[in-house]
Amino acid sequence: MNDLVRPLSRNGSSTRCVVLSATIREFARSVRNFHPAHLREDAAHRLGFSGLVAPPTFPAVFLGHVHRELLDAACTGAEAPRVLHADHVLDLARPLVAGDHLDCRVHVESSRYFSDYEVLTIRSALVDQDGRSLQTGTTTLLGRVRTAGAASAVEEIFADRGPIESTPPPVTDRMPCTAVDFDSLAVGDELAVQLLEVSAADLAEYAAVTGLSSAEAPGMYELGLATGYLTDWLGDPAAIARLRTQVAPGVHGLRVRPGQRVRLALRGRITGLDRRHRTASLAVDLRCEGRRMFGYAAAEARFQHDASPATPPAAPPQAADR
């Protein structure tokens, strides 16, 4: 596990950790989530949080190494298994905050072998010191392995210690502070296009924080970029309630050769509105040099319960600070 994450203990399928401010800042910068609440305590306090707010995909810092260990258990050859495909669902009751003490629980829902591939479906939960699930997720990994029978090896390492609830209920009464007027939205509205450039050094920075390259955790780096794009529009990093992604067929993670840069384009569109609960469904499209990176990507966002938009958050830091 990365040195910026402080592991407290390990017990079977559970790992206890504490969220550190330094980790939040490093991770946020690595996936270009530049909302001030990720970087400055005063901005987080103004949003009602006790410490820095972690980006929505921050659990990769805790769980990425667990997924790698599970795939390593499924491989009996000398070479590490190659991750070929992945689906992700992440439900967020509230964002993680600096100082949170977490029990990181994992449960292998299924392990299936066919041809030269092992398909692992993994449930995870981040539980606070009061026993409340702050975030739960499901990840399906398709790894190329050499022999069948990986399921028993996996279960020997991570024995099931009970089911994990599918969707955690909200654990805070905090009102979203979105900068968007919910009542002005309509299905089909499109978000402004965002253009990015990514270098090999950017991917190395992400690997240093999470302990995994984008090739080992396909879609997670890209999903991190997508959440920053959505947060810039929403104005509140805690407004995202759910993320669902599927890596596009044939895409094995973003690859950039040393010394080169690739161009990315992010687009978003409103696909559904729940007027009663004041939530919106959003589809996200990410392309690298014109090639689709997601087969499917969607988010659910919460909005405040009044007709007027909340006071916009503090301005993002200057480019030099990024």
Question: How does the SSE layout of this entry go?
Answer:
Layout: E1 6-11, E2 14-18, H1 21-30, H2 36-39, H3 41-46, H4 60-73, E3 82-92, E4 101-114, E5 117-127, E6 133-144, H5 150-157, E7 194-199, H6 200-210, H7 220-234, E8 240-247, E9 261-274, E10 279-288, E11 291-292, E12 294-302
Antiparallel strand pairs: 1-2, 2-4, 3-6, 3-8, 4-5, 5-6, 7-9, 8-12, 9-10, 10-11, 10-12
Helix pairs in contact: 1-6
How would you describe the overall organization of this protein?
This protein has helices at about 20-30, 35-40, 40-45, 60-75, 150-155, 200-210, 220-235, and strands at about 5-10, 15-20, 80-90, 100-115, 115-125, 135-145, 195-200, 240-245, 260-275, 280-290, 290, 295-300. It is an alpha+beta fold and about 325 residues long. Helix 1 (about 20-30) runs antiparallel to helix 6 (about 200-210). The longest helix is centred in the last third of the chain and has 15 residues, at about 220-235. Residues about 1-10 and about 305-320 have low confidence and may be disordered.
Number of helices: 7
- Compute the separation of the termini in Å: 25 Å
Quaternary status of these chains?
single chain
Residue stretches low in confidence (pLDDT < 50, at least 5 long) are: 1-10, 307-322
**Estimated structural class:** alpha+beta
CA-atom Rg in angstroms: 19 Å
| Whole-number mean pLDDT | 81
Describe the largest sheet: 12 strands, antiparallel
Find the count of extended strands (DSSP E, 2+ residues): 12
The shape is globular
Q: Strand fraction band? A: 25-35%
**What letter string, H or E per element, gives the SSE order?**
EEHHHHEEEEHEHHEEEEE
The helical percent reads 10-25%
